[in-house]
Amino acid sequence: MKQEKIDNLVEEAINIKPNSYSPYSNFRVGAAIEMNDGELFTGVNIENVSFGATNCAERSAIFTAISQGYQPKTIKAIAVSGDTDEFLPPCSICRQVMVEFCEPETPVYLTRKDGKVLETSVEGLVPFAFSTMDM
Ligand code: THU
């Protein structure tokens, strides 16, 4: 992906982060996804007093796109932003959701608070993934 597009996607993930509803962890996360047609969707982590009901930022963004009518495998790239010293890795539930809705080679941009960006991919995050192909 063009550097300008990556920078923009990362910026979207950073900018949405203040909307995070995270009173229990105080750990704000923002995510942004670009679709193959250029549309952008964002999401934040949304926590719940019943902790297991929490939704991560990545899933919020992906589920918003699917709710808007996008089909699986139409996501071009994902960016994640937290206020972490190290690159923020998506949780394993989000990784499995990425497997369902992305291609293995879909780039995932992880960020850290000093502004550095690490590019990985869905396959990089989930090697040997269980997918619809295995059903
Ligand atoms: N969280 C995310 O939203 N995305 C990640 O990649 C890691 C974790 C959220 C879930 C919870 O609200 C908080 O961060 C602490 O785990």
Automatic annotation (TrEMBL):
Domain (CMP/dCMP-type deaminase): residue spans on this chain: 4-135
GO MF terms, alphabetically ordered: cytidine deaminase activity; identical protein binding; zinc ion binding
One GO cellular component, as annotated: cytosol
Active-site residue list: 58
Signal peptide range in chain numbering: none
EC number annotated for this UniProt entry: 3.5.4.5
Ligand binding (Zn(2+)): 56, 91, 94
GO biological process: nucleobase-containing small molecule metabolic process; pyrimidine-containing compound metabolic process
Coiled-coil ranges (or none): none
Keywords: Hydrolase, Metal-binding, Zinc
Record field: catalytic activity: cytidine + H2O + H(+) = uridine + NH4(+); 2'-deoxycytidine + H2O + H(+) = 2'-deoxyuridine + NH4(+)
Name of the protein in its database record: Cytidine deaminase
Organism: Ruoffia tabacinasalis
